[in-house]
Amino acid sequence: MGNPLLVFWKSLFDAEDEPRSRRATLRIAAASSAQASATIFLILRRMRTPLIVLIVIFAVSVLGLAIIPGQDLDGRPARMGFFDAFYFMSYTASTIGFGELPNPFTYSQRMWVTISIYLTVIGWAYAIGSLLALVQDRAFRSALALQHFSRKVARLREPFVLVAGYGRTGELLGHSLDGLGRRIVVLDHDSERIDGLELDSYHADVPGLAADARDPGHLAVAGLDHPSCEAVVALTDDEEANLAIVMAAALLRPELPVIARVTSHALAERMQAFGDPSLVNPFDRFGDHLRLALRAPASYQLLTWLESGPGGELTTRGAPPRDGRWVICGYGRLGRELSADLRAEGLEVSIIDDSPEDADDPALLVGDGTDPWVLAQGDLDRAVGLVAGTGNDTTNLSLVAAARRSRPGLFIVARQNRPASAPLFAAMDIDALLVPSEVVAHEVYGQLSTPLLWRFLREMPGRGDAWAAGLIDRLTAVCGTRLQALWKVRLNRSEAPALGAWLASGSARLGDLLRNPEDREEPLRALVLLVLRRGEATLAPDDDFVLEAGDELLLAGRPGARRALGTVLHVEPVLEYVLSGRRVPSSWIWRKLTRTPVAGADSRQ
Amino acid sequence: MNLEKVVFGFFVVLAATLNFGFFIGDISDPALHNPFELFAAVVVNLIATVLKFGDRTQIGAVHLATSLVAVLQLVAAALAYGYAEYVSTAGMNESWTASVVSLSGGALLANLVSIVLLVVETVSFHRG
To answer: Where does residue A270 rank: exposed (0-12), middle (13-18), buried (19+ CB within 10 A)?
Structure first.
């Protein structure tokens, strides 16, 4: 059975080359919302019996009152009409009780009313009780939550990031993105985390759903098929679930960027089979960071600062030993990565683990690392650095304490597994602390914030340590030790309408533009980190850099400077003042009267 | 035999028959239209409507819609009857009777559609 109109419509428009995947996701979303409405139907079905009981009780009571003969004030026989009976039963059943209307009842009527009072009270209690039980029902509440959530997501008009898995990492990432003014949608199987979302201090409203992200239907409801969805981030602590999310996103929306957290190489390979997801391995990344920290402490310092998001504090620059022996305690995923990375740097490594899975490494020593004797066996007295990298925070802390006692000047790298241990590790004053959730959050933030920042972070280590140290000095001069706003500007007609003629002149020096529009003698408190021109990046250009139309600029600086620069880019008289120091009237009439030519205005006529 | 189907069919048919019983007769003669029958028709129609709650099929949705129409018309008829009896000074005269009965006639049409749907559903039900 089919609706002929629908069939016609289908045959008319199905020929269009609409992507197949798009239709598939739409279908999935529809199936999922149908699931929600199915629960509502179930609830309606369950209300059948109480409602019918109520109707029957009312009908019987009203009918009885209408049949039983009564009498009026003068003692003449008078029956109650249906309206009188219904009116009386309504106020009696709802325990309001106005008394015997319109006439005092006879005894036969009172007997009937006594019975009906008990009947109706039971009927009401049953109906209201069932209704309240339904409202408390888990299935009903989750169906309501799903509907509420899907409505919120469907109404989103701004671009948003779909974050699957809202643990510590998701929270950090959410706050960094929120600080940039970006919207996120959250999916997590733990309803407590989703409830916690309401207590979190976000600027924007964050829709969250407690559901299994492995289900493509839930992903679709969370906005996988939404046109404004700009990226999918899989951050659950279950690797299989991350793989399922990567698969769903790659198959249903192949054009969307996907970022997934992964710690095992086997799963990373399986994920890579689906499209081109960007994979973040916290141990791998930390190993790279440690290598960078060993080779170029200032570059590492700049990297961590920029990755920490708006409001991030500048960390102190460490001075890790460049040569000597390292002792690595714990030969798990982190231990393997770090031993490979340190060896690649040409450093000697000895490894201690109490129960290694495969003892293939010649430098491996089996034993309990917290035992001073075992540590001594690992050549601790000749070592320059120690890695406390087991999966247990207590062990890591006691490793650090034991190593410090025998060799106070050791460079300590430690892994913090649980967020609750953070104050203990902070009190230990660790030289390089690995918090896997933070590494992942910072990395994903770097990739998602703006493509320019990601580009900058990737190219920056190649510039050398001295360059990075110089840039840190320039940055701290502009915005202090706390990272302020980070924004990008594209020098085109819509984002910088005032700049047209100046850019075309070919002598548009960057230093001339970055001046305070209140007083041009003062420089603007902002720094250009990167200029992207036709795919080529120039990192931290100096004041003599010549800008061209179409350049993309990544700037860091104070929020006030961002507003000031916005004014300069949009208002021609302000630009004129900043460039030349001439005050130009801003109104058209006054300009005509004083016959002042304006650089930007002339170019358009 | 399914007891639920028996109850459902019983109420749908009873709603239509009671409605028919009230409707039949000279449209303007109050003596031919018993208010008790109207009351019974309203109650049975209400029950039939509630029985149709929560059916997700297409035919179930149309069932519910026809029942809602019938209830709406019958409640309107009952209100008109109450107004004529208690509020209007004219009482249950010919024109009031005619409007009450014609409203119930509309409900009868909806109930007939309901019965047709019931029959269609039964006929199109294939065993195995």
So the answer is: middle
* Structure-model confidence comparison of residues A273 and A376, the more confident one: A273
Instruction: List % helix, strand, coil for chain B (3-state, nearest 5).
Output: 80, 0, 20
Residue B89 structural domain: 3-123
Determine, for residues B50 and A55 on separate chains, whether the beta-carbon distance falls below 8 Å.
yes
Rounded distance, CA A298 to CA A472, Å? Answer: 8
Instruction: Mark yes or no for CB contact A82/B47 under 8 Å.
Output: no
Residue B128, domain member (yes or no): no
Contacts of A51 in chain B (CB under 8 A): 50, 53
What per-residue confidence (pLDDT) applies to A215? 87
pLDDT score at A2: 43
What class has domain A48-136?
A: mainly alpha
Same fold? A285-448, A484-604: no
Q: How many domains does chain B have?
A: 1
Residue of B nearest to A59 (CA): B43
CB contact under 8 Å between A45 and B78, yes or no, is no
pLDDT of residue B65: 93
Q: Is the pLDDT of residue B69 over 90?
A: yes
Nearest chain B CA: its distance from A58 CA (Å): 9
Instruction: Tell me the domain boundaries of chain A.
Output: 48-136, 145-280, 285-448, 484-604
CATH tag, A145-280: 3.40.50.720
Q: Is A62 on the interface with B (CB under 8 A)?
A: yes
A44 vs B53: CB contact, 8 Å cut-off? yes
CATH C-level class of A484-604? alpha beta
Rounded distance between C-alpha atoms, residue A297 and residue A469, angstroms: 9
Distance in angstroms (rounded) separating the CA atoms of residues A428 and A17: 62
User: Given an 8 Å threshold on Cβ–Cβ distance, is B36 in contact with A63?
Assistant: yes
Among A454, A21, A537, A488, residue whose Cα is nearest residue A278: A454
Tokens 């014609």 map to which residue? B102
Question: What residues in chain B have their Cβ under 8 A from chain A's Cβ atoms?
Answer: 35-36, 39, 43, 46-47, 50-51, 53-56, 78, 81-82, 85-86
Domain A285-448 CATH (choose: 3.90.1150.10, 3.40.50.720, 1.10.1200.10, 1.10.12.10): 3.40.50.720
Q: What pLDDT shows up at residue A14?
A: 46
Residue B100 confidence (pLDDT) above 90 = yes
Does residue A151 have a pLDDT over 60? yes
Per DSSP, helices labelled H in A137-184 are: 138-154, 168-179
Q: What is the DSSP letter of A570?
A: H
CB within 8 Å: B50 and A51: yes
